[in-house]
């Protein structure tokens, strides 16, 4: 049990505060703790009449050191989900567990035990704990990183490889080309729907079970697609595969957060960031040669092969990495060995039933999408970009196969510049990260979220540039290299825009970051799925040049979005009920700061009490 020293003056709220606000007003003691005989790190949480560590706070006392730009572990307990899926989330969301020397955790964690006020011991990792994934050998962490990156590549590859030959199933099943396009649409819709379910499930049961189950499901349902006898079977299996394949794309960011420390993540994230975008570029290239020489069904067999390899590698070589699940098992083991039920984890002290947590996670993304201008307009921007990417998969065959008479395999080669652009941007990503770290230092560790938009402001122009090059070099009489070259700036700029958007959303909606990202993913996938359905008609009616130019003008108009939020984002966040607005004191949301201000008199000091909400 930890011991604490009391102080003669303690500021106590004069009225009831929300849990998150109350937690912001509780301070830990600097007193040392007694060593605990068990080989785990724990924190004792005192409830009821027990006293928690207190620190003097008054208006005349020197201002405490500003909190870092992160979500405190206390706040995480009140969030519906903590899954992260981007480099920004890896840096911005605080982790619940933290190793500290001497066996002491300098956090006061509210514990909820139904109907009782008692002492509980929160099980966490100890210093240099070999069971902490961050302490695994670097070689093994790199292996796990490359396995999950390969899984993302396989998933992204599966989304685009069938675009190499959509005419094959249309001819065999006697349906139109537009109906055949639905095999892309239903798959991409699954990409948007799946994360709403799989993300919270990974928080409850760990990442590994979700990886293993969903990939196995995808492998199984790829087989009936490869041997389908009618278009209905093909579409149903593609829809199931889209939902199942969405899980790895959702969880990989969290897996990297589990494995790597903040200062180590730059290179692994650069290696990973290319995988989800390289897959769509390589898919049509490989698919073109397969369909020309083996037929359209091999476009599904190759998906099966890659997905099966990914499933085998994940199942038999990558262990559970999610700290909450590992600590849950450790707490259960300690309870069994000692007969003491005071050993608890984050999951055990969360009083909300599973159904309520799922409901919160399902509803919150839509609240953010329709109530928050930042989330809405950035989601629109990312939807446009995602739609452009999938429209390219349809536009390339129109320009090269219809316009120039090329085969599917030769048309697939035209995606090489797009792939090179993706790889080049991944190579340059550490430079962007280094610049951001410089800004962090410049702002004394608390840069505003808007600095995340700087890469987007610089590279957003590459998208319309690439589209205009593609448009006005697509005349059948001109050299083939013109439209192909247009893919390079699109591929190069896409990753920078995508990562910058995720970074900004996470920094702006720290405790709601996962919901903000889920909202963006949902609307992005819906638009990307629908865009491919009218691409051919648009190119036939407007012509190759003006159809691509229309997309370029849309991309050009969207370039204003990052500039607006760079200059006005702070003002928008100030009046948001969900976004974080930073001032000199804390990182509370507007609603929480108002409640704190109402609850506390600047000149009033109360008798000392435990500050804890149960």
From TrEMBL:
Q: What are the GO MF terms of this UniProt record?
A: transmembrane transporter activity
Specify the domain of life of the species encoding this protein: Eukaryota
**Taxonomic lineage from the root:** Eukaryota, Fungi, Dikarya, Basidiomycota, Agaricomycotina
Which PANTHER family would you find in this protein's record?
A: MAJOR FACILITATOR SUPERFAMILY, MULTIDRUG TRANSPORTER, PUTATIVE (AFU_ORTHOLOGUE AFUA_5G02700)-RELATED
Q: Name one Pfam family in it.
A: MFS_1
Cellular component per GO?
A: plasma membrane
Q: Which residues form the Major facilitator superfamily (MFS) profile domain?
A: 144-614
Task: List the keywords (alphabetical).
Answer: Membrane, Transmembrane, Transmembrane helix
Instruction: List the Gene3D superfamilies hit by this protein, alphabetically.
Output: MFS general substrate transporter like domains (1.20.1250.20)
List the CDD domains: MFS_Tpo1_MDR_like
Protein name as it appears in the record: MFS general substrate transporter
Topology versus the membrane: Multi-pass membrane protein
Ranges annotated as spanning the membrane: 142-163, 175-198, 210-227, 239-260, 267-286, 298-328, 368-393, 413-432, 453-472, 478-501, 522-540, 546-567
Its subcellular locations are:
Membrane
Query: Record's InterPro entries?
Result: MFS, MFS_dom, MFS_trans_sf
């Amino acid at each position: 049990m930890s011991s604490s020293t009391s102080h003669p003056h303690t500021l106590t709220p004069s009225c009831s505060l929300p849990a998150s606000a109350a937690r912001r007003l509780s301070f830990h003691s600097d007193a040392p703790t007694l060593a605990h005989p068990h080989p785990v790190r724990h924190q004792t949480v005192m409830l009821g009449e027990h006293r928690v560590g207190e620190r003097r706070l008054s208006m005349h006392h020197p201002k405490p050191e500003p909190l870092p730009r992160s979500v405190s572990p206390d706040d995480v307990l009140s969030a519906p989900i903590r899954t992260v899926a981007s480099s920004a989330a890896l840096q911005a969301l605080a982790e619940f567990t933290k190793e500290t020397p001497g066996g002491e955790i300098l956090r006061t964690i509210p514990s909820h035990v139904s109907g009782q006020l008692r002492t509980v011991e929160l099980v966490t990792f100890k210093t240099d704990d070999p069971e902490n994934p961050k302490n695994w050998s670097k070689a093994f962490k790199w292996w796990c990183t490359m396995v999950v990156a390969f899984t993302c590549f396989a998933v992204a590859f599966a989304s685009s490889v069938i675009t190499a030959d959509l005419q094959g199933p249309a001819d065999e099943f006697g349906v139109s080309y537009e109906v055949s396009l639905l095999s892309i649409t239903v798959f991409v819709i699954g990409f948007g729907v799946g994360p709403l379910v799989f993300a919270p499930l990974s928080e409850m049961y760990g990442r590994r079970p979700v990886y293993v189950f969903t990939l196995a499901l995808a492998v199984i349902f790829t087989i009936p697609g490869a041997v389908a006898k009618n278009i209905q079977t093909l579409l149903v299996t593609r829809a199931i595969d889209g939902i199942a394949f969405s899980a790895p794309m959702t969880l990989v960011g969290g897996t990297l957060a589990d494995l790597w420390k903040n200062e180590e993540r730059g290179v692994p994230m650069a290696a990973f960031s290319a995988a989800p975008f390289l897959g769509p570029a390589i898919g049509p290239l490989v698919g073109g040669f397969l369909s020309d020489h083996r037929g359209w069904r091999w476009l599904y067999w190759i998906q099966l092969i890659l997905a099966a390899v990914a499933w085998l590698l994940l199942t038999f070589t990558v262990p559970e990495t999610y700290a909450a699940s590992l600590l849950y098992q450790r707490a259960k083991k300690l309870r069994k060995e000692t007969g003491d039920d005071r050993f608890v984890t984050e999951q055990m002290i969360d009083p909300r039933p599973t159904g309520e947590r799922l409901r919160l996670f399902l509803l919150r993304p839509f609240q953010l999408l329709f109530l928050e201008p930042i989330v809405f307009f950035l989601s629109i921007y990312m939807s446009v970009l995602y739609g452009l990417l999938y429209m390219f998969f349809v536009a390339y065959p129109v320009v090269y196969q219809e316009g120039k008479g090329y085969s599917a395999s030769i048309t697939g080669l035209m995606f090489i510049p797009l792939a090179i652009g993706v790889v080049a941007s991944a190579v340059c990503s550490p430079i962007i990260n280094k610049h951001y770290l410089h800004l962090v230092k410049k702002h004394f560790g608390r840069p505003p979220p808007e600095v995340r938009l700087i890469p987007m402001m610089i590279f957003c122009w590459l998208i319309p540039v690439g589209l205009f090059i593609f448009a006005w070099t697509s005349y059948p009489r001109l050299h083939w290299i013109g439209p192909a070259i247009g893919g390079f700036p699109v591929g190069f700029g896409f990753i920078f825009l995508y990562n910058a958007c995720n970074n900004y959303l996470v920094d702006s909606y720290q405790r709601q970051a996962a919901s903000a990202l889920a909202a963006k993913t949902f609307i992005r996938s819906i638009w990307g799925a629908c865009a491919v359905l009218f691409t051919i008609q648009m190119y036939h009616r407007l012509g190759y040049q003006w159809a691509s130019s229309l997309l370029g003008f849309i991309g050009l108009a969207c370039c204003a979005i990052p500039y607006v939020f760079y200059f006005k984002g702070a003002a928008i966040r100030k009046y948001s009920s969900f976004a974080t607005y930073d001032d000199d004191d804390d990182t509370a949301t507007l609603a929480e700061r108002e409640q704190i201000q109402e609850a506390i008199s600047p000149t009033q000091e109360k008798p000392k009490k435990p500050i804890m909400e149960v």
